[in-house]
Fold this protein.
Amino acid sequence: MEDQTRFKGLHISDQLAGEITRTEELAYELKISEVMTQNPITTSIEMTMEAVLNTFRNHRISGAPVLEGEKLVGVISIEDLINSLRKNDISSPVKKYMTTSLVTVRETDTVIEALKLFVHTKLGRIIVINSSNQLAGIITKGDVTRGILKALDHDYKEEEVRRYRASHLFEDISSDRSSLILRYTIKVGDFTRGGSASSNIKRALLRMGANPQLARRCGIAIYEAEMNLIIHTTRGGIIRVEIEPHQITMQATDEGPGIADVDLAMKPGYSTATQEVRELGFGAGMGLVNIKRCVDWMQLESTPGVGTKLKIKIFLKEEDTVGEGYPSTKESIKDESSGNNKSFGA
Amino acid sequence: MNLQEIINHLGLEVLTTKDKDFSAVEPQSGYISDLLSCVMAGANPLSLWVTLQAHINIVAVGALKEVAAIIITEGARPEEGTIQKAEEEGITLLATPLSSFFIVGSLWELGLREKA
């Protein structure tokens, strides 16, 4: 029993907790009653060993609990049976050969308790008892495996359901025009979190059923806009993404310093990044160029001393729609894509 | 050729989890640059990205571009936070004291090309 105390002092650090797999977690969550075999084959105390042999053979089992009336008194296994066979004594009763020192677990215990016992006792099956110490069932390693697989399958199905729901977000919502808006506040100089808004948006799009190619394009465009806010602004900015069944609109807004010459800023290789930032691998002068390459429509509006507003759109074909609910008529979509600002159609 | 064979041939150090089955990863192409926006523009999914940048933003770029792994050259060492971020994003970080030139040359010799 001293082995069991070994687990007591184990301190679970955050890092260790992060390494615990879902399977291990389940061993601590699942109750033995959920995985055990109920109503197992039992033998009585007076049964002959010959009858035990037939029972084992007929039910293809290698052990069984022994009952005296309702009371659990022992366990009989194939080893005990071999023992009686070697002594040519199979007409003797179970009472003579059974093991009476019982290893048991409670049905309310978690599966991990059974797993510990399997390791420490090398037993193949453990008897499960209820709160009044009566036989409740039997648990084998096979039961544990099956139980965990079933639970994992359940988890998997739940994830599938969640994914399905996200990918049909707009389908059952009636409105003239539905959209999902995601907002991210980007801090200036926050290189450590650089790229997290774009990864989150990309993940959201994939969840909503976007095709991977499209999610990647969006991810790249938003990443560059995000890094621009981190590198070039005075006070950071806001990224706002609007997801609609027929288009994705992204807007990056900041409060300065503004771009003096928008045409020059759009030139491949032109950058105002500092030496320090360039050493990190930024400032290639490709950011806006990359954005333009990835989107269907782009508008860059900037006033020095006031701020910059970048707006981009990716139009979705019906087969590439996210969240379902693609508009049936094009006329229902009015766009502000016409303006007197600098637009870069692609 | 799979990533495990590449790791063995080039003697690369695996900085992120070693529990991944690298033999199941088949890099399809390579890309070399230390300018992140160029990588954003040029690297293909499942490519090997060779760079001497080791700071945290390479992880975001690698994840968005879905590269097979990032090979950090010339003995540059990412910080612990970078490695942790890479684990979260499922990006493999490999390190070598050798130069980018030497690594790219070896990858080419091993037969890594551009597979569309």
About this structure: The helical segments of chain B are 3-10, 36-42, 57-65, 80-89, 100-109.
